[in-house]
Amino acid sequence: MTEDMVLALGSEAIKIVVYLAGPMLLAAMVIGILVSVLQAITQINEATLTFIPKMVAVVLVLVVMAPWMLEMLQQYTIEVLGNAGDLVR
Predict the structure, then answer these.
(1) pTM
(2) Which residue ranges make up each domain of the chain?
(3) What is the DSSP letter of 49?
(4) pLDDT tens digits for 14-32?
(5) What CA–CA distance (Å, rounded) separates 52 from 35?
(6) Cβ-count burial of 27 within 10 angstroms (0-12 exposed, 13-18 middle, 19+ buried)?
């Protein structure tokens, strides 16, 4: 296994992680900002108020994006396991 193969495998793994986690993190961030603005406008300083909307948003994004996420993960796994013989050498 050469350095180029390790770097390519690592960069592909990082890219997959960003693609899989990105939509959920983005949804949580947007909901968090919206709830924070709402709290600032209404002066409600409840710390637990942001938790439930974020959790609901993340679950909704996960339900909607799950087939795409599973497909990406499956393709990456097939690629890595398919090239396992070349990677071991």
Answers:
(1) 0.79
(2) 3-88
(3) G
(4) 999 999 999 999 999 999 9
(5) 11
(6) buried
